[in-house]
Write a structure and sequence with these properties.
By secondary structure, the protein is an alpha/beta fold. The strands form three sheets. It has a six-stranded parallel sheet. The chain has a three-stranded antiparallel sheet with strand order 7-8-9. It contains 15 helices and eleven strands. Strand 7 (209-210) and strand 8 (215-217) form a beta hairpin. The chain has helices at residues 22-31, 47-56, 69-76, 81-94, 113-122, 152-169, 186-190, 224-227, 237-243, 245-252, 261-264, 268-271, 276-283, 293-301, 332-336; strands spanning 8-11, 35-40, 60-64, 98-105, 127-132, 172-175, 209-210, 215-217, 228-231, 304-312, 323-330.
């Protein structure tokens, strides 16, 4: 990893500290000049573990906070999850650790985003990573929890306001790869990127995922079966990175690999359908991303909207996902107002 130029490695799980050698991994990353960080749900992150992580060289830990106590515990499926997460942030701060937070955005958590920001800022978070919930894992068979494409018309003005509040609080807003694309708030949310805007999917280009059994993927979120390029026990990391087709997908694809709305979009060559993970877990293949602000605005301008309908339940195995199809229909909001709906940017 060091020879390939890896700068940061985030330990994720489940919970990475359930491994007996997690501190050894942290120390080795530090020894090779790779910044060790971790993302956690916070359950079991005791003051003792926080001290151990700090001494081993952990640079920062991000704790998942997904809403109020009722919302967070509902999404996590375990009562007391939010209280444990908040206690974990306090324990790590007490140990001298830098802390951050990450939040999934869905129909339950979206109204609570302003309060989530205030909460994590009070706990000393230096950054806040946000991403849209997709139909994978616990959310695979809960379509009513997922955002509707039309919800993006309300979400993005809200995110722009939250970005301003983040700046006031000294919290870095870090939109995940499926927050986009090319709408009127693109420069507000992603102006800090090298191009000043979103630059398509980073899987196999700027990111790499290594599973606990040595499987290598271009992104840790991608489903294992379809996106594993090899195993570190069988081939070198360099060989897998440079040659494996699943890791080269984003590097080698063209607009001809896109389909649906994304194939005909004005931004097709630049965006390339955005987040590969989002497209794949909705439809079983990449190349057409329904979670796009520009797309929702284009639909609204035509008096249309898109609706996602579940067509297949998840299989129940790790990294599983359900299947959806897109229904394009007349926008009832426009019908009710005689064809005019204003989107505020305040």
């Amino acid at each position: 990893m060091a020879e390939l130029g890896v700068r940061e490695t985030t330990l994720i799980g489940g919970e990475a500290y359930l491994r007996d050698d997690w501190l050894e991994i942290v120390r080795e990353l530090k020894r090779f000049g790779i910044s060790p960080t971790m993302t956690t749900g916070g359950r079991g992150m005791t003051p003792e573990r926080a001290e151990q992580a700090k001494l081993a060289g952990m640079d920062s830990v991000s704790v998942s906070i997904d809403g109020s106590e009722a919302t967070h515990d509902r999404l996590r499926g375990v009562a007391g999850s939010r209280r444990a997460a908040l206690e974990a942030m306090r324990a790590m701060r007490a140990a001298g650790m830098r802390v951050a937070s990450n939040t999934q955005i869905n129909r339950l958590s979206m109204p609570e985003l302003p309060q989530i920001l205030e909460t994590i800022a009070e706990l000393g978070a230096h950054s806040w990573q946000i991403a849209l919930t997709v139909p994978m894992g616990r959310a695979a068979d809960e379509p009513d929890v997922l955002l509707r494409p039309t919800d993006l018309l309300e979400l993005f003005p809200l995110l722009a306001r939250l970005k301003a509040r983040c700046d006031e609080l000294g919290v870095r807003l870090w939109p995940g790869n499926n927050i986009g694309y090319f709408g009127p708030f693109e420069s507000v949310l992603k102006g800090g990127m090298p191009r000043g805007h979103m630059a398509s999917c980073g899987a196999g280009r700027s990111t790499l995922g290594i599973e606990a059994d040595g499987a290598i993927k271009g992104c840790p979120s991608l489903p294992t079966e379809a996106w594993t390029g090899g195993n570190i026990r069988d081939n070198s990391l360099r060989e897998i990175w440079e040659r494996a087709t699943p890791l080269r997908y984003v590097r080698d694809r063209t607009v001809d690999d896109l389909w649906g709305f994304c194939r005909t979009c004005y931004y097709a060559e630049e965006c390339m359908a955005g987040c590969t993970w989002t497209s794949h877990v909705f439809f079983g293949r990449p190349g057409n991303n329904p979670y796009c602000h520009h797309r929702a605005l284009e639909m609204r301008a035509k008096g249309k909207r898109e609706r996602l309908v579940q067509t297949q339940m998840a299989s129940g195995v790790p990294f599983d996902y359900s299947r959806f199809e897109i229904v394009v229909e007349d926008d009832p909001a426009l019908q009710a107002t005689g064809g005019s709906v204003e989107e505020t940017s305040e």
